[in-house]
Amino acid sequence: MFLTISGATGFIGRRLLQLYPPDQNSLVVLARKNPCLNPLIHYGHWDPAVAEPSRELLHRSEAVIHLAGEPVSQRWTPAVKTAIRDSRVLGTRNLVSAIGKMRHRPKTLVCASAVGIYGNRGDEVLAESAKPAKGFLPDVCADWEAEADKAREHGLRVVKIRIGIVLGADGGALEAMAPLFRWGVGGVLGSGKQWMSWIHVDDLARMIQFAVENEKVSGVLNGVAPNPVTNTEFTRQLAGALHRPAFLPAPEFGVKLLYGEMAQILFASQRVKPAAAEAAGFVFRYPQLRPALDAIFA
Ligand SMILES: NC(=O)c1ccc[n+]([C@@H]2O[C@H](COP(=O)([O-])OP(=O)(O)OC[C@H]3O[C@@H](n4cnc5c(N)ncnc54)[C@H](OP(=O)(O)O)[C@@H]3O)[C@@H](O)[C@H]2O)c1
After folding, report:
1. Domains plus CATH for the chain?
2. What are phi and psi of 190, to 5 degrees?
3. Within 13 Å and on the Cβ side, how many CA atoms surround 102?
């Protein structure tokens, strides 16, 4: 398959690349600097918020997978908020605009989005039809998806994957959490009642591949496992998988002091279900949290 991938150097992208061996696929990786991944993978320079990618880089691509974006898990200074938004909203606009100018266009665009679009929803069960919330992150996600949707006007099939908390060994949420638990200072966040919609990185990479290769799939897919858990349950399972206690709860005001406005995503309750992916026939390898954690820490 001919594929163009942005964000391939990131946590999810690196795992995704393993599903597309470059000796059997033609891969172009769009990145801000040459990641020197593999001599068989073609590198194309692209800084999403700055300009359109060169159309030559997209030439012959059957599908474009767009994952690039400024990391969200950092203190949200005004400059960081601009980078979070522009890298996604302007970035996707630039990508779609370049595609629109091509004579032979890719057939499919699979674009990342996030469950952050749903905001803080308590115990409500959130399928893809749930209404987006309002606020900094929900607005970024909605505008990001709207830019991706414009590719439909150019005849592409568009899939937006609202990604949850991605669990894996070499990045993502566990990279920050696991050391705290290993040192015995991990614990419940705030009330612990907030729902966490997680997914094993292998399943997410497979879901992206499923979206690329399954022509019947379009629109939104919630990129989460079918069994979300509360923060209390997540804490218990993570401590168990690491054979460590978890007795130090982190009070909400302390975490807010440390992380500022960004802390809201740590306390947001999102009980998200992958209704569309399951209806389309996607089968999870890790539907339950504990086996997912055990596989990661094995
Ligand atoms: N991991 C999660 O739990 C999670 C949850 C929800 C949504 N998502 C979304 O899924 C996508 C991929 O996530 P990830 O965890 O793989 O992210 P990641 O590890 O932070 O990698 C994202 C990639 O985006 C590019 N990038 C970083 N800053 C950028 C900037 N300012 N402007 C343009 N590009 C920039 C980088 O690629 P280059 O350096 O090669 O240019 C980087 O490799 C992101 O859009 C993220 O918001 C992830």
Report:
1. 2-164+199-224+272-285 (3.40.50.720)
2. 60, -135
3. 25
CA 205 to ligand 1 center in whole angstroms: 14
Given pLDDT bands bounded at 50, 70 and 90, which one contains residue 40? very high
Q: State the alpha helices, DSSP H only, in 101-244.
A: 136-149, 172-182, 201-213, 231-241
Candidates 64, 71, 63, 1; CA nearest to 30 is: 64
What does residue 269 show for φ and ψ, rounded to 5 degrees?
-100, 120
- Classify residue 39 by burial, with Cβ atoms within 10 Å: 0-12, 13-18, 19+: exposed
Distance CA 15, CA 9 (A): 9
For residue 68, give both structure tokens. 């690039």
Question: From CA 118, how far away is CA 120, in angstroms rounded?
Answer: 7
Q: What phi, psi does 94 have (nearest 5°)?
A: -65, -40
26 C-alpha to ligand 1 centroid (Å): 22
| 247 pLDDT higher than 80 | no
Q: Considering the entire predicted model, what is its pTM?
A: 0.97
Ligand 1 atom 18: residue of nearest CA: 10
- Measured by CA distance, the residue closest to atom 25 of ligand 1 is 68
Ligand 1 midpoint to CA 208 (Å)? 15
Region of residue 218 (phi > 0: left; psi between -120 and 50: alpha; otherwise: beta): beta
- Check if the beta carbon of residue 49 is closer than 8 Å to that of residue 83: yes
Helix/strand/coil for 27: strand
Locus of tokens 């012959």:
60
Mean pLDDT of the chain: 96
Mean pLDDT of 256-265: 87
Angle at the Cα of 35 from the Cα atoms of 33 and 41, rounded to 5 degrees: 115
Least confident of 190-194, 197-201, 255-259: 255-259
